[in-house]
């Protein structure tokens, strides 16, 4: 989403296809590179991330998740304002390459 006055927001998503792969990437992002924190809420000044299918959307049945485009491995990230964009990108790359 974009606001013409402020620009793009910091909400990103990446589909890792399975919950296992999503949790593995989030573990690397949190523990190996300090990219952000795993959480069910995405409102904080630090970068937060969650696997939506097993957290915030866990009450939906599989057909509802499919209709909403929520795969088992969908990670939602709210990029915080701690650190620079370059730092965040480097942290993300290191964790993703490790996958």
From TrEMBL:
Presence of the UniProt keyword Chaperone in the record: no
Organism domain of life: Eukaryota
Keywords: Pyridoxal phosphate
Cofactor(s) essential for the protein: pyridoxal 5'-phosphate
GO cellular component: cytoplasm
GO MF annotation terms: carbon-sulfur lyase activity; pyridoxal phosphate binding
SUPFAM superfamilies listed in its UniProt record: PLP-dependent transferases
BP terms from Gene Ontology: transsulfuration
Pfam families (alphabetical): Cys_Met_Meta_PP (PF01053)
InterPro entries from the UniProt entry: Cys/Met-Metab_PyrdxlP-dep_enz, PyrdxlP-dep_Trfase, PyrdxlP-dep_Trfase_small
Family per similarity comment: Belongs to the trans-sulfuration enzymes family.
Protein name: Methionine gamma-lyase
Organism: Brassica cretica (Mustard)
